[in-house]
Design a protein that fits this description.
By secondary structure, the protein is an alpha/beta fold. It contains 15 helices and 13 strands. The protein has a 7-stranded parallel sheet, with helices on both faces. Helix 3 packs across helix 4, helix 7 packs across helix 10 and helix 8 crosses helix 13. The radius of gyration is 21 Å and the shape is globular. The chain starts with 7 loop residues before the first strand and ends with a helix. The relative contact order is 0.12.
């Protein structure tokens, strides 16, 4: 999509460490640069900053992750200077705390403001509802799934035409079996200590080591499988603890206590997720709280792998039960044990058939190109409305 001449986008995101909102920030920045515009990101920084700059984007470091009111005010002043100096066309906020400083800066400079509702924020009090509503106070709200859109409409006084659904996209060049070499898979297998002759069904749970990701449910389900005589599996928890050493130690103790040290492994952060999915036979997304979209349910399908996911939130839109994977009640270890047993029992061939169906559906509905095109169209919409 052609952008207006001299178009400059400023995205504001707490950090560029890891996660769906962060990846979307990188994807949209790259699309803007490809379309002839300039892409700035105000953020604390993080490991994905290198990718942003390699794609032609520009990083401006500031403490936008802070919830301290004085720091937020300072960020607003910094963003005003940045917007004026760089002649920013649109400001796009991707999280609540930085959205306050970004919104104030946008208003001070009369710059269009867009916000993406990346998660379903709960509000237990009027103050919290006011805090969440900052994401709806600009020119347009982007929801990353219909589930999120329905939540915003129910939670805030937002006109239906003020919010648009743009599902997160998956980079189908990166997440494609055709582009992953056997050397990459072999390197990951070595790094994770998996013998090439290990014929067990390999099950991957990718995501940060946080309680809401459901690791403990999977450990309990694995123990139930083992007690039933089903032991032909290897579960891999791929994710960074990000300093949550207490939770990591709790997981390690639960694995050891259940006698699963040979069947459940914590392999740490993974930089090559396409190879990780290809190394695996199926993927898990056992979140205990609804995910607004759940990229970790879509990426493995793009790689031709079926998914077992919690039956809530955005995953009920991205996983077709019994066709591209299975939807299971969250937190129900018995149900998860049953779903994993079925996935193991149907064998390699049937899992590949399900994977092919999932891959076709992802290519149709969840490409990063479609997501970026829709986002650029949203920017054009707010610019035309302002004009």
């Amino acid at each position: 999509m052609p952008l207006p001449p001299d178009f400059t986008l400023l995205q504001v995101v707490p950090e560029l460490e890891t996660g769906g909102a962060e990846q979307t920030t990188i994807d949209v920045a790259q699309a803007v640069v490809k379309a002839g515009g300039r892409a700035l990101v105000a953020t604390r920084g993080g490991r994905m900053a290198t990718r942003l700059e390699a794609d032609g984007g520009r990083l401006t470091q500031m403490p936008v992750q802070s919830k301290n009111p004085l720091v937020i005010l300072g960020n607003a002043a910094r963003l005003v200077d940045l917007i004026r100096t760089e002649k920013v066309s649109v400001v796009h906020a991707r999280s609540r705390a930085p959205a306050f400083s970004a919104l104030w800066a946008a208003k001070a400079t009369h710059t269009p403001f867009v916000a993406t509702y990346h998660g379903v924020y709960k509000a237990g009090s009027p103050l919290k509802r006011w805090y969440n509503a900052v994401m709806t106070r600009g020119d347009l709200v982007i929801a990353n799934s219909d589930y999120t859109r329905d939540h915003v409409l129910a939670e805030h006084r937002v006109a239906a035409d003020h919010i648009v659904t743009i599902p997160r996209g998956v980079d189908l060049d990166r997440f494609s079996p055709a582009f992953v070499t056997s050397d990459r898979v072999a390197a990951l297998r070595r790094a994770w200590g998996i013998d090439e002759a290990d014929g067990r069904t390999k099950i991957l749970l990718a995501g940060r080591l946080t309680r809401i990701k459901g690791h403990l449910t999977i450990i309990e389900a694995a123990a139930k499988l083992k007690a039933q005589g089903v032991g032909d599996f290897l579960i891999l928890f791929a994710g960074d603890d990000q300093g949550r050493t207490g939770y990591r130690e709790e997981l390690e103790a639960a694995i050891a206590g259940a006698g699963l040290s040979d069947q459940v492994r914590l392999v740490g952060h993974c930089d090559d997720m396409p190879a990780a999915y290809l190394l695996s036979d199926l993927a898990l997304l056992p979140t205990t709280k609804p995910e607004s979209f759940g990229r970790a349910a879509v990426e493995p399908q793009a790689m031709g792998r079926p998914v077992i996911a919690s039956a809530h939130g955005g995953t009920v839109e991205t996983v077709v039960d019994g066709v591209t994977g299975w939807l299971v009640p969250p937190g129900d270890a018995d149900a998860w044990a049953g779903a994993m047993a079925r996935a193991i029992e149907i064998g390699h061939g049937k899992r590949l058939e399900m994977g092919e169906k999932g891959q076709a559906r992802v290519r149709q509905l969840y490409s990063v190109d479609a997501m970026c095109e829709a986002t650029l169209a949203a920017y054009e919409r707010v610019l035309e409305a302002r004009a």
